[in-house]
Amino acid sequence: MSIKQLCVLSMLSVLSASASAEPIEVGSGVNEAKVHVEWADGYRVDFLVHFGEVETTTLTGLELMDIVEAETELTTVRSDFGFGVFIDGITFLGHSDVGFGGGDLWWHYWEGDARDNSQWMSSLTGAAARRLGHGDADGWVYGHGIAPQLEVALPFLDGYSQYAFDANDFATEVVAYEPTSVFLDWLSGGALDDPNTVLGRPTVDTTGDDWLAPIDTPLPVVPVYPAFREFEIIYLGEGGSVTLAFNHPVRDDEHNPYGIDFIVFGNASQNQGGTQGWNNGDPREAVVSESHGSEPGVVSVSQDGTTWYSFTTDPNFMADHQDFIKLPSGASGDSDGPFADTFAPTLGRVYNPADPDGSLGPWNQWWSEPTNPTLPLDPGLSFASFAGKSVARIAETYGDSAGGTGFDIGRLDLPADPNTGKKWFSYVRIDDGPGAGSAEIDAVSDVSAPGDYKHPAPLGDVNGDFCVDIQDAALVAEFWGTDTPDVDVNGDGLVDILDLGLVLDLLGSCTWGSP
Q1: Mean of pLDDT values over 468-497
Q2: Is-contact 449 255, C-beta < 8 A?
Q3: What is the pLDDT of residues 87-98, one digit of tens each?
Q4: Phi, then psi, of 271 in degrees rounded to 5
Q5: Would the pLDDT of 6 be above 50?
Q6: Is the preceding omega at residue 249 within 30 degrees of 0, hence cis?
Q7: What are the tens digits of pLDDT across the range 204-229?
Q8: How many Å is the Cα radius of gyration of the chain?
Q9: Distances in whole angstroms, Cα of residue 493 to Cα of each of 4, 483, 484, 487, 499
Q10: 94, burial (CB in 10 Å: exposed 0-12, middle 13-18, buried 19+)
Q11: Which strand (E) or helix (H) includes residue 80?
């Protein structure tokens, strides 16, 4: 084996050795913050600290360490210099660094905010003055001034932040719109009957209701205040329907989050507790109940616009139409639904008080860039999951996701593409569910994922993680001199120096997320 191959394998072993265990959970309460500790010998540990009976509770960095120290074997040495208390030593499971030993031999204190705990800032306040809320993080590092490497998983999926609008991510054509009645925008008097409003992304900002908020104020859509204007949604009416088309096949891609392939956005909402109404104020102070408003619509998909596969087991749905194939029912069959215009309510903007969008007006202290409508929300969540929580906590759970109701076409008996082996569709139809109100529809999106039609793997990605990195180079070294097709980057029939050179030249190339 060559020196270059040995170097590659050596680098890989160093990277593999850096992995750490799951965080140690301590404390109790409705909030969570993270504490990362790293000693001079390279040992590190992460703690997940639960605290506070209400969501607005904050703790100082020292108080966070008090909880860790009280419930684990970790101990600290603290010094009071008159102008503040500082941690001067930390000991845990035989790893101990205490005092100032010159140079960088002291405990460096780092701060991570709730939006992205992979980005650290050297503390300007010290742990006695620093206040942490839900989702924040503290880092303690001895022996060097390099920001820590947090191993605790972030609540936001990598690759979905800072979404850039692309019309191709959504339905692009209205094939048919057949409402059975009219519903009016109570502010303008116009009908909710313009099907073009269903094309493109779901509503990001709506308007005030001219009651609790002025009509000329842009209000971000939140789970308690959905889109409702004539230029945002359409109304189906009882028994009505809308049929849309994508300009590309929507596939059952294996890397789609939670197995969700497409998302339908309506104007379902979760109700605030008591007699509260949404006034566009501090989302931490608006608490929701389990009650909600939703008007289910039956969703069907088709490859040709003629034969439909429906997400329902209801034998009465389209009973006279043989071209509607429903989910199997019975003890061994599939569950009914999901249905359009139900959970999850749309979230138009990312909750990020650290970086609010000033273009909304000086009132905005909480809402940042628009959310990503191609990122589904965890289908294990429900209206009940958020009961008793604030709008801010709900938005933190959404992260970069715009919400909406997610659908997995793998559950349907759709034929697979013979070339890709994947199920797919191009048309989606939404029928109002009988006897359940009348569904309103805002948008339909194709879920984005690495490996989909927009995000193929980059050249040099040997291991299939959609980034060219040292692991790919290690595989080239491992299969050196063979004719292994998946590792033969240039396709010349031999894994050799040419393939390794391509991988090394393309290190850092990614079609998704970051290396």
Answers
A1: 93
A2: yes
A3: 999 999 999 999
A4: -80, 145
A5: no
A6: no
A7: 999 999 888 889 989 999 999 999 99
A8: 27
A9: 21, 5, 8, 10, 11
A10: exposed
A11: strand 75-80
